[in-house]
């Protein structure tokens, strides 16, 4: 039995490939999953037993708070948040970076995290064993000129998560940062069977690592940065 068994976990970004993989892993581990999506949830996850769906634009503070009120009214408690909202903009020299790219990244990677963690904070603190995790990037440690906005947004989301970890000190909750270089999906492998994808992390490995967070004592997990990057093969 996993530590997440019987726990209620909120997953954002659940319609993405990683999100769907994580929802399936949580369900298989015996947890109750709550997804918050901007549009309709993917049929593949909405049909799973133990999954309930709510809709909100995570960049909209009022909409997030309304969705969380519904969640708290429908569930006895909330024991976790896996914030998997993604998005990328970049690939141009730093002096050519479009301010609109930053607006997109700030809303998706930072504001959404702020809104959902603030709304869920009382429930997470009240839990007997809660975890919060974000997926970040190894580019935070070594940003490049063509990825300046993306790396800066990821760094900001890490700073927020670290501050949340500080707020969790002495409680039964923990906030964790998980870094990857890039994610590898089964579809990517199918589309390019000859490609090696060095240092790409399979989404199944990320899902397993997130589910396993409830097997680590909160004081030990809180504030940690876990890097999930496979070693390059010779």
Percent in strands: 15-25%
- For the biggest β-sheet, the strand order reads 3-2-1-4-5-6-9
Query: Nearest-angstrom radius of gyration?
Result: 17 Å
Q: List the secondary-structure elements in sequence, H or E.
A: EHEHEHEHEHEEHEHHE
Shape: globular
| Helix run count | 8
Low-confidence stretches: none
SS-based structural class?
alpha/beta
Distance, first to last CA: 37 Å
Q: Give the rounded overall mean pLDDT.
A: 95
Helix percentage: 40-55%
Number of strands: 9
What does the main sheet amount to?
7 strands, parallel
Commentary on this structure:
The chain is α/β, with parallel strands linked by helices. The protein is 42% helix and 18% strand. The chain is built from 8 helices and 9 strands. The strands form 2 sheets. A 7-stranded parallel β-sheet has the order 3-2-1-4-5-6-9, sandwiched between helices. Strands 7-8 form a two-stranded parallel ribbon. α4 (99-126) runs parallel beside α5 (148-168). It is globular and about 50 Å long. The mean pLDDT is 95.
Q: In a nutshell, what does this entry contain?
A:
The chain is an alpha/beta fold. It has helices at residues 17-28, 43-46, 61-74, 99-126, 148-168, 186-191, 203-211, 218-221, and strands at residues 8-12, 32-37, 51-55, 80-83, 130-137, 173-180, 183-184, 201-202, 225-227.
